[in-house]
Specification:
single chain, 179 residues, three-stranded mixed sheet, alpha+beta, 7 helices
Length: 179
């Protein structure tokens, strides 16, 4: 949880005027990339990746303190600082105890498509706020935009109220969004 403590500390310091307001926050998560790769291959980084490595914060020894190492709960934990049982994102898919129905972590039948594509997914099952929500609370003019190949990564990294969450759709052959 070291990473989440830092994020909270940064937001707290920013709120009290101890740290100047950042113009841009970039939060990157790369699924299934070994922890040592970022340092191991940093000599090949140029441009933005080099700047992220040299001037950003890199967690080379982060720890996952729960068993469900899947995309949905992992990204929800990164964004919220909460364990899966508290964030509402227990797994990529689970069976609802009361109804015995299968639930996909970001499925939402009420989320409408935009320009006749996308839709059907939202952060509805995410029951706690995340970094994007905290940022917008501190700075209402801020924009929270996420993008990922996977719908669950894009949606859960954005928190409950992102401005945009884009993900790749094989059926469309491009990026889509829900309303």
């Amino acid at each position: 949880m070291k990473k989440n403590i830092f994020i909270l500390l940064f937001i707290s310091l920013y709120a009290f005027g101890k740290v100047p307001a950042p113009k841009l926050i970039v939060f990157i998560s790369i699924d299934q990339m070994r922890g040592d790769y970022f340092e191991r291959y940093n000599q090949y980084f140029t441009g933005g990746f080099n700047r992220l490595f040299s001037k950003g914060i890199v967690y080379s020894n982060a720890d996952l303190n729960y068993a469900t190492s899947e995309t949905g709960p992992g990204h929800a934990t990164l964004g919220t600082g909460c364990f899966p049982w508290k964030s509402g994102i227990l797994s990529n898919e689970w069976t609802e105890r009361e109804t015995l129905k299968d639930v996909y972590c970001v499925n939402d039948s009420t989320a409408k498509s935009v320009d006749s594509v996308g839709g059907g997914f939202s952060p509805r099952n995410l029951v706690v706020t995340a970094v994007g929500d905290w940022l917008k609370q501190q700075s209402p003019a801020s924009k929270v935009i996420t993008a990922s190949f996977k719908d669950r990564a894009a949606i859960l990294m954005g928190g409950q109220h992102p401005d945009y969450a884009f993900w790749y759709s094989k059926s469309v052959g491009g990026m889509v969004i829900s309303d």
